[in-house]
């Protein structure tokens, strides 16, 4: 039974959609109210937002492993903020809130994506419910083999959580379509939890199509770590589309195509995500999976 739920925005300071949804709902709390649980809101990284940045010193959404939260030697802006948020919503391991929805956006062409970091029938049914009402929604399972303690995402303070990840939208930009999709997906998650709490989950499709994260790959780099190329135009914007072995995925600045050298076909997400400017990540690779709602 979920009794207390938190909706978090602004975990990344330049992802405006979640921040402005929180402002909207502050004035219209009835939109996120459901009768079987309490909903609160949290603006996670004010300081980064004030500087119009993803983060000030460290990516806040990588600061929430149980080990890091209890490590007193970690004192950057975000490491301290993570401990404050953990006090407010958690603490991880024995949290005050039962469920967290963390709102994110991406510059990649991922559409409305439900990111799940835990396995189980509850999540499979949630995914099926969201997809039933929002057929364009994608479902992506991100390291769902890990325990909550191991996960470094803010949302994993709570025992149960999801991230809403919608794109494409530029950093520090509001787009009407992305704003609407984020709001719709959040509403469907709240609706599902309400139905689940009341033991009224409706008949759902037996299975739901999803993707599971395999690994991230980097852009081609020179020996001294400079970018030697970029994402190939045939892969740009093709999130959740098939990438076949031997298919060009990068092009170097001297015009050579670099092909995908994996053994089996995969799918891409976070393709050419702008936020990965500092780590040269080119995309995530995913496999297609089927989740069972029974
Ligand atoms: Zn984000």
Give a brief description.
The protein has 294 residues and is an alpha/beta fold.
Characterise the protein shown here:
With 294 residues, the protein is of the alpha/beta class. It folds into 2 domains: 4-208, Zn peptidases (Aminopeptidase), CATH 3.40.630.10; 212-292, N-terminal domain of TfIIb, CATH 2.20.25.160. The protein contains 6 helices and 13 strands. The strands form 2 sheets. A 10-stranded mixed β-sheet has the order 2-1-3-6-4-5-7-13-12-9. It has a 3-stranded antiparallel β-sheet with strand order 8-10-11, with no helix packed on it. The radius of gyration is 19 Å and the shape is globular. The model has no long low-confidence stretch (mean pLDDT 98). The structure holds zinc ion. Zinc ion (ZN) binds at residues 11-12, 15, 104.
Based on the model shown, name its key terms.
2 domains, binds zinc ion, N-terminal domain of TfIIb, 6 helices, 10-stranded mixed beta sheet, 3-stranded antiparallel beta sheet, alpha/beta, Aminopeptidase, 294 residues
What is the number of strand segments? Answer: 13
Q: Can you list the strand order of the major beta sheet? A: 2-1-3-6-4-5-7-13-12-9
Fraction in helix: 10-25%
What is the third-level CATH name, the topology of the largest domain? Aminopeptidase
CATH superfamily descriptor of the largest domain: Zn peptidases
What is the top-level CATH class of the largest domain? Answer: Alpha Beta
Number of helices: 6
> Quick one: overall form?
globular
**Bound heterogens, unique:** zinc ion
What would you say the CATH architecture of the largest domain is?
Answer: 3-Layer(aba) Sandwich
In this structure, how is the largest beta sheet organized?
10 strands, mixed
Low-confidence stretches: none
Strand content: 25-35%
Could you tell me the mean pLDDT? 98
**What's the alpha carbon Rg, rounded to whole Å?**
19 Å
| Class inferred from helices and paired strands | alpha/beta
């Amino acid at each position: 039974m979920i009794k207390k739920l938190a909706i978090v925005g602004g975990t990344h300071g330049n992802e405006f959609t979640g921040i402005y949804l929180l402002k909207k709902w502050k004035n219209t709390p009835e939109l996120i109210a459901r009768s079987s649980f309490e909903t609160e809101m949290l603006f996670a990284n004010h300081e980064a937002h004030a500087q119009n940045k993803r983060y000030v010193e460290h990516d806040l959404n990588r600061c929430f492993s149980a080990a890091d939260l209890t490590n007193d030697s970690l004192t950057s802006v975000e490491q301290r903020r993570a401990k404050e948020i953990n006090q407010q919503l958690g603490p991880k391991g024995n949290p005050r809130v039962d469920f967290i929805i963390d709102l994110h956006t991406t510059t990649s062409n991922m559409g409305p994506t439900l990111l799940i970091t835990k396995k189980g029938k509850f999540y499979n049914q949630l995914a099926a419910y969201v997809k039933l009402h929002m057929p364009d929604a994608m479902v992506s399972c991100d390291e769902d083999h890990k325990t909550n303690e191991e996960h470094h995402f803010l949302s994993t303070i709570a025992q149960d959580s999801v991230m809403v990840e919608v794109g494409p939208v530029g950093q520090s930009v509001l787009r009407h379509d992305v704003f609407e999709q984020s709001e719709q997906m959040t509403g469907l998650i709240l609706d599902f939890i309400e139905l689940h709490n009341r033991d009224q989950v409706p008949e759902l499709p037996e299975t739901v199509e999803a993707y599971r994260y395999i690994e991230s790959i980097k852009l081609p780099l020179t020996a001294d770590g400079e970018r030697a190329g970029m994402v190939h135009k045939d892969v740009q914007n093709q999130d959740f589309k098939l990438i076949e072995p031997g298919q060009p995925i990068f092009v170097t600045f001297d015009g050579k195509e670099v092909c995908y050298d994996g053994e089996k076909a995969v799918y891409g997400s976070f393709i050419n995500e702008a936020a990965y400017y500092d780590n040269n990540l080119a995309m995530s690779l995913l496999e297609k999976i089927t989740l069972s709602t029974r």
